[in-house]
Amino acid sequence: MVVIQQQQDSKQNSPKPSSSADSTVNQNGDASDGFETASERDVSDDENDHDHDQQFAPQKQEEERDHKNDAESIQRALSEASDAKLEGNRLFVEGKYEEALVKYEVALGVASGPETNELRSVCHSNRGICFFKLEKYEDTIRECSKALELNPTYMKALVKRGEAYEKCEKLEEAIVDMKKILELDPSNDQARRAIIRLEPLAAEKREKMKEEMIAKLKDMGNSVLGRFGMSVDNFKAVKDPNTGSYSISFQR
Asked: Does the UniProt entry include the keyword Cytoplasm (predicted)?
């Protein structure tokens, strides 16, 4: 009887094995060391984001101020350039071409950046027209070319540059501009008539230039051959009808 009682006491005093549920609780209790719970992660991320925003807030504000200042500067420059251009237009109408050139130059000096390309193109073209009125055709070509760099389809600049090319007897270049005008505006009769008028003149000029070149080459050849009692007239070019090539024959 005594032995049985002792066994029972032994069973009662022995530690109870932990259940799986108890194990989970204990592990969770101990897990805070070395493991990140969902709530801890959320709090940490929020804090990091806040710290990040605090760190870059001054830089962001500075960038916003710079952007605003840039926009205001561009708008102010556009306004000043536009006023100078309008003053140039007024002077042009009054026939004061030199004074108008100065105003357009002021507008170009103020305006800069891609936002001002249209205004700059107009000012260059208007300067080209002023130079045309002053019969400074090379300057007209230069200014209109600058206008066309900014706006390749600027009709007024193409027309005026073509006319200036003709004044400078650069007929081939003038024809190119007139053909470009017809591409942009097939109904442009002015360009079509100019092409009809200029093409025979350009062909005549090419023929004249060829004759002048041949004459120069002949003079050069005679200056060399003359030392040997000969001239280029002693040499005759004969064309082969079959091949189209030429052979040189010597004649006394």
From this structure: no
